[in-house]
Amino acid sequence: MATYGLFTNPICPFAQRATFALALRPLPHNVHWVPLSLQLAWAEKFGVEKVPVGQVFAGISAEELKGGKEHYKGSINATGEVPSLQLPSGEVVMESEIVAEYIDSVATQGTKLMPEDPLLASRVRLAMKRFSDSVASCYQLLMNQDPAKDQEYADAIKAKWTKFADVLDKNGPFCFGSSVTMADVHCAPFLYRPFGGPAKASAGSGGMREDARVPSAPADCIGRYPFGVRAVRKRPEIVGGGLRRPWPL
């Protein structure tokens, strides 16, 4: 059986898009854990056992962790970013949105995440675009070093949250009605972290720490979102994502 290789990280919301896509549209795959830059820094300074969600790297030294990341950059993805999906042919698909769409295009199990209907597909892509705009604004705020500009950035984020919520189906419970779509896969890791709730992530932390400057997503958006507290408990495959296999590469 042809097997794919998923290169990912358990605390990276971008990588979780691929995790969720595979949970909903299964493909035979092996998982390879790739450390984030912050995790490498923590491992070098405090030891691997102190790395956030470091249990996936148990038994690996800081030097081995660094070597694994360099191997990944040299053989899979030169940017060092996750996720990447290595095909049975050896070719590699990169970038979270593209990886998720590739999975959806080749998988035969589960319900397609990108609707066949062209109009609905266009709405899904619009929601994804608007959500991506809000994520970019969040990172601008998190990287801002001028407190006088914090409110300006926060207001921009709220405006973009509203634009995103405006294009969602008003009845839910998912972004576009009763079925999960690619919009849900795209947004879920940021709006709801499986281990903590609606995310207010700090830059570089993978969502493990909160930053009080980041405004929460609107309650009406979270309330009808598929990966809100009640709904996520009904989709255990989303929380676990089947990612239980060991690193390294």
Automatic annotation (TrEMBL):
InterPro entries linked: Glutathione-S-Trfase_C-like, Glutathione-S-Trfase_C_sf, Glutathione_S-Trfase, Glutathione_S-Trfase_N, GST_Omega/HSP26, Thioredoxin-like_sf
Boundaries of every GST C-terminal domain copy: 117-249
Gene3D superfamilies membership: 1.20.1050.10, Glutaredoxin
Boundaries of every GST N-terminal domain copy: 2-111
A cellular component term, taken from the record's GO annotations: cytoplasm
Transmembrane residue ranges: none
Annotated signal peptide: none
Protein name: Glutathione transferase
